[in-house]
Write a structure and sequence with these properties.
Length: 174
């Protein structure tokens, strides 16, 4: 009886890694195509008032803590940066980076940054807005330890819902 239980235990222990490996191969994530990224990075607004959309974008970025370093209304271009001090206990950066502060500090990360560029383009009788966000983790010397694009569709949906509200408020002159 004990030999049978031991034999079953050995079979299970040797089979589990095989099943785990097979399962791991099934969950391979294919990279997003540029078209897929553009779909959630872009929103169309039913207005021909480019300054209104640009002003709403600037307001949202500033409300979110971005410092806007460049805005060109003629080109419809906006560039801004949001910096986080990973040692500051009052700031929660897990939403933007998906990592705890303890883990970032343990990795030697002192500053976490999100950069954004936005493009507001006239498109017939509407305005097309495309925005993208890039995350950077910097060490004490200011060198990048990690850089990647924010490819979370919900992150962009949350951002555009704030832009929707800002455009509404701009139209109402509030």
């Amino acid at each position: 009886m004990i030999k049978r239980i031991l034999l079953i235990f050995i079979i299970i222990c040797t089979a589990l890694p095989v099943f785990a490996k097979k399962r791991q191969q099934e969950t391979i994530i294919t990279p997003m195509t540029q078209l897929e990224k553009r779909q959630f990075q872009t929103r169309t607004y039913q207005t021909v008032d480019k300054p209104l959309v640009m002003k709403a974008m600037l307001n949202v970025l500033q409300d979110e803590g971005f410092i806007v370093y460049n805005a060109n209304p003629l080109l419809g271009f906006i560039y801004g940066v949001k910096d986080f001090d990973t040692a500051d206990p009052n700031i929660d950066i897990s939403k933007e980076f998906g990592l705890s502060k303890a883990r970032l500090n343990w990795s030697g990360v002192k500053v976490a940054t999100i950069e954004t560029t936005a493009n507001v383009t006239e498109y017939g009788k509407s305005m097309k807005v495309r925005v993208n966000f890039k995350r950077k983790l910097l060490n004490v010397y200011g060198n990048a330890q990690f850089i990647d694009d924010v490819n979370d569709e919900k992150y962009y949906q949350d951002f555009f819902s704030k832009v929707d509200k800002a455009i509404f408020l701009q139209k109402q002159k509030i």
